[in-house]
Amino acid sequence: MKPFLQGNPSRRLHTPASEGFAVHLKIIPMENFKATGYKLQTIATGRVFEDEGWVIDDPQCDVPSLVRALYEKKQIEPKDLSHGIYRFADWLPIRRTLKGSCAPITYKSEKLAQKLGLQNLYITFNGYFPKIGATMSTCSFKETEAYSVCGRLEAGCDRVLVVASAGNTARAFAKVCSDNRIPLLLSVPEDNISALWFDAPLNDCVKLISCQKGGDYFDAIHLSNLVLKSDRFLAEGGAKNIARRDGMATTVLSAVTFIGQIPDFYFQAVGSGTGAIAAWEANLRLIADGRFGNKKMRLMVSQNDPFLPMYKAWKADSRTLPAYDDEQARRDAETINAKVLSNRKPPYGLAGGLFDALKDTRGDILKVTNAQAEAAQQLFLETEGVDIYSAAGVALHSLIESVQNGTVKPQDMVMLNITGGGEKLCLQGKQPWMLKPHLVFPLDPNPEEVLEKVSALFA
After folding, report:
1. Residue 304 lies in a domain
2. Confidence category of residue 16, pLDDT binned at 50, 70, 90
3. What is the spatial distance between Cα 449 and Cα 206, in angstroms, rounded to a whole number?
4. I want to staple 176 with a disulfide (CB 3.0 to 4.6 A). Which of 71, 146, 237, 337 is the partner?
5. Are strands 38-42 and 67-71 parallel, antiparallel or unpaired?
6. What rounded mean pLDDT belongs to the chain?
7. Residue 366 CB partners (closer than 8 Å, separation 6+)
8. 451 domain residue, yes or no
């Protein structure tokens, strides 16, 4: 099979001859961009309605449910790589494009695949690795979220976007908002601010608040919710924001338009599971496209042991997460290397959430220790030639384990989502600029004090 060469309009994409058909994707320019046409659908009820600007939930639905974008364009026509993530604008709920983005890059592995005994291992790399064309300067696939979410915002929006994060998401939104002068408030645990490095100082439209040391991602979310009591601030929405999920879904669009067909397996580490939900949704759109087959990738997701709320719920065949003591959760979050995977309140059991995605795709959740992830990171560096983050190491080890136990066969087509990497390469010979908190609050903050002090930051 000759894969589609991303960004080269002279090449055509073909599926294997055994599939009996060929796919021809037309690469089109993106001048005179027009807002993407779409409607919203509530997963729990099936109700279809218009997006009135920044809809996160269906006000007519009385049960927890995600809403999903239904795009007017049923067959995707990717633009060339010069358009960054917006090469997939047909399936992004955006009103405008922003400068500085990079699309995920997919390539067929040789050395790692040989080491694992796989014939069809495709790596979708999100990070900094110029050798393959990957130039995400924050080194994380969270950039795919940020460029999509901020592209959904109306130009000239006078409200401050609020994003709670364990680290990488904050770095991505900070870059995008700084480069495009979009007012942004970040809420990140003080223990995680080492993740907020940049290759240049940020515009002062970006502000950072933190919960004090000992807090985790859930504490950062609580702090941001106190700020959102004022209409001056706008909740980004997390997993409920269609732009976040469909931005992350570009990883699958990158892989499938490169390979020419939907893979058998999809591997990724998860904290909230939003990326895996996005992969499932992209898979359904690609089936409806009609040119890539009708397979549903088996979603093989993994958590970093001992922070395992979704793993425990899944193994109990439960839609409900187990009780998790606050102090124990904070200790577990501190223990794991992949701190970005420490979400205590993920979109797991609601309609359209990770539980549904795993059931529909015959997926599974695996657990990976710090030591196993570290060994996988080293293996990737040795075989593929670039450093990867702890979360990506978690994903790689779950693939290794699945090969060893026979779940993944040598001939299976596998997509490995490397959600972040290339930081050491990106910062080689550079002194990074660090974003420091403008305000630090206790774990049990006074709501009025939080709102007053944060509002003053944007006076």
Report:
1. no
2. very low
3. 20
4. 146
5. antiparallel
6. 92
7. 300, 301, 302, 303, 311, 398, 401, 402
8. yes
pLDDT at 167: 84
**Residue 153 belongs to some domain of the structure:** no
- Residue written as tokens 């995920």? 104
Where in the sequence is the domain holding 223, given as residue range(s)? Answer: 160-231+431-457
Residue 210 included in any domain: yes
Separation of alpha carbons 33 and 374, rounded Å: 43
Per-residue confidence (pLDDT) for residue 3, from 0 to 100: 38
Parallel, antiparallel or unpaired: strands 48-49 and 206-211:
unpaired
pLDDT of residue 11: 31
User: How many C-beta neighbours within 10 Å does residue 172 have?
Assistant: 28
> Of 24-28, 226-230, 271-275, 342-346, which range is least confident?
24-28
Return the percentage of the chain with pLDDT > 70, whole number.
93
Q: What CATH number corresponds to the domain at position 207?
A: 3.40.50.1100
Q: Using an 8 Å Cβ cutoff, are 223 and 187 in contact?
A: yes
Has this prediction a pTM greater than 0.85? yes
